[in-house]
Amino acid sequence: MNKLTVELLLTGNELLCGDVIDSNSAFIAQELATLGLEVTRRVTVKDDLGLLSEEIAAQSKRADILIVNGGLGPTVDDMTAQALSNAAGVPIACHPDAMAHLEDWCERRNYQLNEPNKKQAMLPQGCDIIANAVGSAVGFFLELNGCLIYTSPGVPRELKTMMQDEILPHIRQRKTIENHTDISRFGVFGLGESTIQEMVNDAFPDWPQNIELGYRAAMPNIEIKLTSHDQQAHDIKPLWQQRLVELLGAHVIGFGKTTMAQALVNALNESAKQVTFAESCTGGLMASQLTTVAGSSAVFEAGFVTYSNAIKTSILDVQESTLHDHGAVSKPVVEQMLNGALNKSGADYGVAVSGIAGPGGGTQEKPVGLVWIAWGSSNKMQTAALYIPLGRQYFQQYVAAVGLDLIKREVLGETQAPVYLEARKAKLN
Question: Which of 92, 289, 316, 326 could form an SS bridge with 85, CB 3.0 to 4.6 Å?
Fold first, then answer.
């Protein structure tokens, strides 16, 4: 059985001039990989009807499957429907199902359906629509030269839903796929790729060759991916994944797309506890990440962004004498910040951070990249000074991740200290 050939066609001037960074093709490729399909060619074309028509015709003669991304909107530079009509040699016409979708979409939002919007219902004659559960523009499907052509929206959120709910199931239905690929993912924080690989090499010299182990750095986390391509590998993969998770221990965040914030919310929900944050150098990043998780209101009622010394004193009751004697980036200050946040919020657990994000503000005694962290409860509080010289944005992201991780470990009762507490320990005079 010959392996299916898959190509991508991306449209848009904004992609070619750099105004928009292409992340859609990476997502599409990752989703296709779950079916054992590999993208063999990716082409990006400007908003030019002639070029688009020619490219679709050429790709349809080479590929078994072609996914066209972008160009489905209501404006003059959205040309995918007309280009596919030209390539297939069929007229463009109003598709009744696409129009019904538009009318329903507008009615539910109390929008008036105008003429530009109606353009999104003008599709190649004979095509089948692909439902868009999120946006106004449906996708559509057409077979040309034996190639299955799927069009999809350029808006990432709409593309994601359409790929997973519509396009992938359709491909499974229409094409016999030789080897189904199964991919398992989980996140890790506090260990680098080389460290993880060394641990795997030492612990598992007999790691099976038919289970691919891959890593993807997604600052500040590492995503670990286990890929199998045949039934024998599918069957043994859960066992090897379990062994790997046990090896990495509390550094594992969770499975799939679980974030550190989601993992913390889960732990707090299980223990029926609440958390608070007193943030200086992270500017509210920990609270922001936690509140992106649905249901976080059950475990989080208040956080405090106390950037200046005056606000640390007036809001969190940090003593002026402590700030004067030790400076804002110090152990006594973060301890008082945490105590203040716990008292004001009534939360069971909390994290306080104060650091020097840079690029200025550092001294020889307290360099840029230094952060003091306090975490725990009123009865059990711990502190650490870390040195994280990563640049301002990365420094903030890493410190926020450390704060969420440390308090998650505390809530879960983890006794194993994370590697980074020693590896990034600040050398203080």
Answer: 92
Given a contact cutoff of 8 angstroms between Cβ atoms, the answer to whether 317 and 338 are in contact is: no
Q: φ and ψ at 296, to 5 degrees?
A: -70, -20
Cα–Cα nearest to 199, from 209, 211, 213, 216: 213
43, two tokens? 């082409």
Question: Whole-angstrom Cα distance, residue 317 to residue 301?
Answer: 19
Separation of alpha carbons 333 and 342, rounded Å: 14
User: Is the distance from CB of 128 to CB of 97 less than 8 angstroms?
Assistant: no
Q: Helices (DSSP H) in 72-131: which residue ranges?
A: 80-88, 96-108, 115-118
Q: Is 67:28 a contact under the CB 8 Å cutoff?
A: yes
Q: Which token pair is 426?
A: 């600040």
**Beta-ladder partners of 41:** 7
Helix-strand-coil percent breakdown of the chain, rounded to 5? 45, 25, 35
Residues 6+ apart with CB under 8 A from 348: 273, 274, 275, 377
How far apart (Å, rounded) are the C-alpha atoms in residues 405 and 187?
12
| Beta-ladder partners of 66 | 7, 149
Domains in the chain with CATH codes:
6-174 (3.40.980.10), 182-255 (3.30.70.2860), 260-423 (3.90.950.20)
Q: Using the 8-state DSSP alphabet, how is residue 388 labeled?
A: -
Give the list of residues 6+ apart from residue 79 with CB closer than 8 angstroms, or none.
11, 47, 48, 49, 52, 71
Would you say how long the chain is, in residues?
429
State both tokens at 324.
């004067």
Query: Whose structure tokens read 């003669």?
Result: 61
Alpha helices in 139-230 (DSSP H): 156-162, 168-174, 193-203
Tokens linked to 123: 């599709």
SS3 labels along 350-373:
EEEEEECCCCCCCCCCCCCCEEEE
DSSP strands (E only) in 295-340: 300-305
Torsion over CA: 143, 147, 153, 157 (sign): positive
Alpha carbon distance 52, 86 (integer Å): 9
> Which string of DSSP letters, residue by residue, matches 393-427?
HHHHHHHHHHHHHHHHHHHHT--SPPHHHHHTB--
pLDDT means per 10 residues in the chain (429 residues)? 84 91 93 88 96 97 96 94 97 96 92 92 96 94 96 94 94 73 90 94 96 90 91 94 96 94 97 98 98 97 97 98 97 98 98 96 94 97 96 96 98 93 90
Give the CA dihedral 12, 17, 22, 28, nearest 10 degrees. 40
